[in-house]
Design brief:
Order of helices and strands: HHHHHHH
Mean pLDDT: 84
Low-confidence stretches: 1-7, 11-15
Helix content: over 70%
Length: 233
């Protein structure tokens, strides 16, 4: 007697939509705000001015991330919907052509023609548009663009990331503000690399090295520019 065992699996790829937006937002929040703070601090300004600049960067950055993600992902969604509308129309106007097209895709993947045609026939009878969306266009429920989700995730994670350098500014002695903000921000980036890698089931070392290197580079360059500007002024 055969028993059917249901074994639902969760895969890291199902998280790519919100994970990409979350890592991007948090990383941008830490790096851009810390870089701004270090640049302003290196120019010789005091704590109130540094805090004001950092707070302005947090608000502007979060809103910019939300708007940018919403617009870009909406454009992707519009393209996907346009392709789906075209497929829907072609299924009505040219069903035989669409059947052969789907069967040809399965033949290209290694099925013989009778099997490919049988699979295509059954899938089109069940959900023709869904079959063409998956196998011809490469669209799925996992990969579908979600503009609002991306916008909200990016804005919130940017604000959280940007808040970390600001907290360091509040707590650090003014004479040691620059090194403390830099170290705290780099540690936050390393932690973000670990969390992002674990959520996506990716290699931790590679993720941490990548995010830390580019964050350190951005902060060092901005601090150097701020120091130069402060010296000139």
């Amino acid at each position: 007697m055969l028993h059917t065992i249901l074994h639902p699996e969760t895969h890291a790829v199902s998280r790519t939509g919100w994970l990409r937006a979350a890592v991007l937002g948090a990383n941008d929040g830490i790096v851009s705000t810390a870089s701004l703070i270090l640049g302003v601090a290196a120019a010789g300004t005091g704590r109130p001015e540094i805090l004001l600049a950092g707070l302005a960067g947090l608000v502007a950055g979060a809103l910019s991330m939300a708007a940018g993600e919403y617009v870009s992902v909406s454009s992707q969604s519009d393209t996907e919907n346009a392709d789906l509308a075209r497929e829907r129309r072609e299924l009505v106007e040219e069903p035989d052509h669409e059947f052969q097209e789907l069967a040809g895709i399965y033949i290209g993947r290694g099925l013989d023609r009778p099997t490919a045609e049988a699979v295509a026939r059954q899938l089109m009878a069940h959900d023709a548009l869904g079959a063409h969306a998956r196998d011809e266009l490469g669209l799925s429920e996992i990969a579908t663009a979600r503009p609002l989700q991306a916008a909200v995730t990016s804005a919130l994670t940017f604000a959280v990331g940007a808040a970390l350098p600001l907290v360091a500014v509040l707590l650090a002695p003014e004479q040691q503000l620059v090194p403390i903000v830099a170290v705290a921000s780099l540690l936050a980036l390393m932690l973000l690399g670990v969390l992002g890698a674990q959520a996506g089931r990716a290699p931790i070392g590679k993720s941490v090295a990548r995010i830390t290197f580019w964050g350190a580079f951005a902060m060092a360059l901005t601090a150097a520019i701020g120091k130069l500007a402060g010296t000139v002024v």
